[in-house]
Amino acid sequence: MTNHITTTWKGNMKFESTNPSGHNLFIDAGPENDGKGEGYRPKALMLSALAGCSGLDVASLIKKMKLKVTDFKIEIEANLTEEHPKYYDKVTVEFHFFGNELNESKLQKAVDLSIEKYCGVMEMFRQFSELKIETHFHNQ
């Protein structure tokens, strides 16, 4: 399967990018780099892609396993190298589950399946960064 996107310059430092979903997004630099901050930063967008990819896996597994979860979020902290080309060399992905009937072992299995088997973006990140995965359960 091939994905095709088109990213078009909108003047100054702003671009508009298509997506196979039909929803376009804007990319822009911040004022410190002559942009107006009217769009996503490219490297940060990679982190959103990582969280989104794994999040979709885990949400699907929560549904399939019929697990009770009130809320679920993924927090990512990533270290950017100092030298150009700057890239993320260390990335911590934290999965946070909230609820009063959390099945911790099954939720951990869902996370493990995503990070080890299903999430292609996670596999891409493995090629250039050191990944640390944490799972946190918040019983309410």
From TrEMBL:
InterPro entries: KH_dom-like_a/b (IPR015946), OsmC/Ohr_fam (IPR003718), OsmC/Ohrsf (IPR036102). Gene3D superfamilies: 3.30.300.20. Transmembrane segments: none annotated. This is OsmC family protein. It comes from Gaetbulibacter aquiaggeris.
